[in-house]
Amino acid sequence: MMFFHKLAVVTIGLLTSVSSAHPGTASQIDRINHLIEQNPQSQALMIKRASLYIQKRDMEKAQQDLGHAASLGDPVETAFEMGKLQSKNDEFKLAIASFQRYLNRYPGHALSFLYSAKAARAIGELDLAMDNFNAYFRHSRNPHPGEYLAAAGILLKKWPQDSSPALQFLDGAMQRLGSIPQLQRYATELELKRRNYSGAIARWRTVETALSSSPQWKLDAARIYILAGDQGQAMELLKQVKIQLQGLKPTPARIENAFKLRELELVINPAL
Length: 272
Fold this sequence. Notes:
Layout: H1 2-21, H2 25-38, H3 43-56, H4 59-72, H5 79-88, H6 92-105, H7 110-122, H8 126-139, H9 145-158, H10 164-177, H11 181-193, H12 197-205, H13 208-211, H14 215-228, H15 231-246, H16 252-268
């Protein structure tokens, strides 16, 4: 028994060293191959290599490794990577079942909820997708803002004529993460779609401290003020952008912003 405990400790240490090095996928596979030669009965190593094959999109080898890994120990340990493989193969219902098997063993595994949410969304199971997204947010210590955007998109699909649920959801996300520009930009666009211009302005102003040095922020703010009918405030912002762009090198971003500036100026005064 002590021998197997030591072997498990060694295997975990080897896996940690492989993961922490972050070489290319092919290089990682080469290192795992060497470790498997030394530990051919290691289920953990076999699952790790299958995961790398999935990253490499070599699904046939991933399938073979997961099948072999299932014979080396408890098959449930392979369920998470199997779900990822099935999702990559567009077998979304099978993937959801695999993630659920893994969650039955590890109820707090955040990524299983996340991948299950994405699989459910892919087949139009919006309620199931939202349930899994919410579970992911509960269990994840550091959820990515992009996942909140994906979940908000589901709410918009469920209620295409009413953006209130999506906006409330995004506000809840920002209570947790802070006023993330990525989230606030999306919320601002939703306010504009429902013609709540004062709400859009208020939201965009919340990221002013973080983004106001950027010409893009001023251009976006000017666009909102134009839609709100406040051309004076919009023109003041556009003047600031023009001065700012004059001091920048002619990069693709600067050129694009110059075109946007001109377009907005013409909206305010077509005679320019």
